[in-house]
Amino acid sequence: MTTANASANLTRDETAARAAAFTVSAEHVALDVTRARDGGTAGFGVVAVLEIEATAPETWVDFIGESVDSVSVNGAARDVEWDGARIRVAGLEDGRNVIRISATGAYSRSGEGLHRFVDPADGETYLYTQYEPADARRVTPCFEQPDMKARWSFEVSAPTGWIVLNNAPVVGVAERENVQTVRFAETLPIPSYITAVAAGPYHRETGEWTRGDQRVQLGVLCRASLSEHLDAENILEVTRQGLDFYDDAFAYPYPWGKYDQIFVPEYNLGAMENPGLVTFTEDYVFRGAATRAQHEGRANTILHEMAHMWFGDLATMRWWDDLWLKESFADYMGSHASAAATQYTDAWVSFANRRKAWAYQADQLPTTHPVVADIPDLEAAKLNFDGITYAKGASVLKQLVAFVGEEAFFEAARRYFASHAFGSTTLDDLLAPLADASGRDVQAWAAAWLSTSGMSTIAIDRGGDDVAITQTDPRPHRIAVGVYRITDGRLHRTSRIDLDIADERTSLAGPAAEAVRRADLVLVNEGDLTYAKARLDARSIEAASEVLSTLRDDLARGLVWSSLWNAVRDGELAVARYLDIVRRHAGGEAHVGLLSQTLDNAAFAVGHYVPDVSSGDEKRAWLEATWHGMHAADAGSDAQLAWARAVAGAAAHDDHLADDIRGLLERHGVPEGLPLDPDLRWSLLAALAATGRATDADADAELARDDTMSGRTAWVRVRASIPDADVREHAWRAAWEDETLTNDHLSATISGVRAGGRRDLIERFDTDYFARLREVWATRSIEIARRLVRDLFPQRDDLALADAWLEENADAPGSLRRLVIEQRDHLRRDLDVRAANA
To answer: Which of 132, 144, 266, 305 does the annotation list as catalytic?
Structure first.
């Protein structure tokens, strides 16, 4: 069911009032998914029994589904009063009450609630749940707010032969006539949004983690048709390493009994921290070639979600204002634990270059917000799973660790968990043990870093008599300055200067000043200790242009790449010069994570920042550079695969090498060692389609080779990419109007609409885009509406339509306006940078 009812958007104030008047101690949920394999069955049965303590005579229970069939309180039937989102429950007694609600939920194809997927490879049906921040109510009636924790017990009726999973271990199974009813143990207290269920003929690999008297059963699961690609041993190895690390770091034994990790189809997120049943996107089951950077990214995500078993699941933020209490910490811990406990000791290199780029982008938008944000309602909460809450929060935590010391940081975490296990917390609950453990003024630190928005820009000034570190928007930073000289044609670090800065200008003196003055390159955030845009001065840029690829330290080299990119985004470094540096040095980039990010950035610069007058030339030059890079890379290397993927991206904008790319698909002229797996084949075919060099018949032929979930999604994208006005119009209308599209097929359709940057084919829809916004926000789920609003925003040469809509729709929902404002600002930046480079 789609609801436009405003009551679906819960507010902070009303949920706080509910929590003050009611306490939920337990909830029992019975789900009936026995007919899930029947495609004609839209809904499933659910019975929820809530045990509460009341101090008020009525409240509401949250539920979004097909129907509410009955409501009883303490055994007495009540009239069903349901507005599509809230079930009114009256006649409650002071003290203990039992509410029983029978309802029918709706299977989802948007990745929200209980998602149902039919595998094209074998026709099997798979179910899984995804709730954060507030979609448990799409499956079961509940109190949908993080501070109302309960002990949950589930029983699920499903077809026999299926694996059925929940947060807790199985305690009993009853079978009858092709139906099994699986009962699960009661959980420890958790909020609704991290309860979870999965069911289907999943393939399962098992393991165990033991330490002292602790014994945890491990499971790794995926669809049966993906089982040949599931490298479970690597996943289990990282899992054991993470449990070892966190067991020491937090001094609180893993509390959730078992640890299943399930990789699911059509997933909207990277992963979700449901205790005992962590869900991941299937993108982490590598069905083709995968670089070391991809494996590192998966390990980071595994450890991020594992950190949530403590930060978020054991101690949960009271309301979404303090979302950072789990996400910032988990993002920090993912990199920290990767570097400390796994083979991916260079995890902070990828963090500095990729995750922080996300934070820098988000923090320069007009909608930026403090890490500790003001979240008045659920719509605002949904949009705050962003680069500020995750990557900026993790970045400032890295600065905090530099400020208080690593031992004090982890001692504070241990005290925090000991004091707030299974409770709900706020910022002050963590700051207090931090202050005690470190003896530092963390309240002042929090005021400077957590309660403000925006970032400083730090730079070196060595052009006059005084050598100084400058910063805009001053904050206290603990930083290091790296001093580099070119010797025998290579960059070498000659010294490192550690210091605290807090003012707009901090002068250096003596040997430090002299070393900086004589340096060929100066890095003002050596070691990436703080969160700030770090500028390179002109001499440093010149050194980077000459010898960047000779710098052996991966993190230092990554910081140079990051500084160059931020300067391009701000219009301070000419895009042509940046692309020249990329062409000169990307081929020598030894760290595949840095290479992949640099290639992505260069492609974005070509598509967004190059002035129109030189756009065609730069697109062709970039395509030829990627083609050369693919052939020059070592056979079978990660770099070769990264360059090949860049070829596919570049070829969608220029058909100069279309015949050569067609040859690759026909296995002519394939570079030695290049794995031409299904995903790369689809990317190359999509590029040909976008330039009119592939047809529907080509797409159908490729689908016959790869009739899988990924193949069908790519097929949708390829067919929608063909540069024909009627094809693009059909895709445009389908994106907005075809509610049978799954979440993945919607994104593929949108990609087709925008393929190749062919504005001439779609600019006629610009006014239609703005005319549709209010309706789509009111009638579609927030996940689907967000994709449409964000990804179909017109890439015009002016801001007039966006400005007019914002002026005329001042009364539009705040979350919708935020998305439009952000997309307008991205376009504004594109236009400004192009103008600066004209």
So the answer is: 305
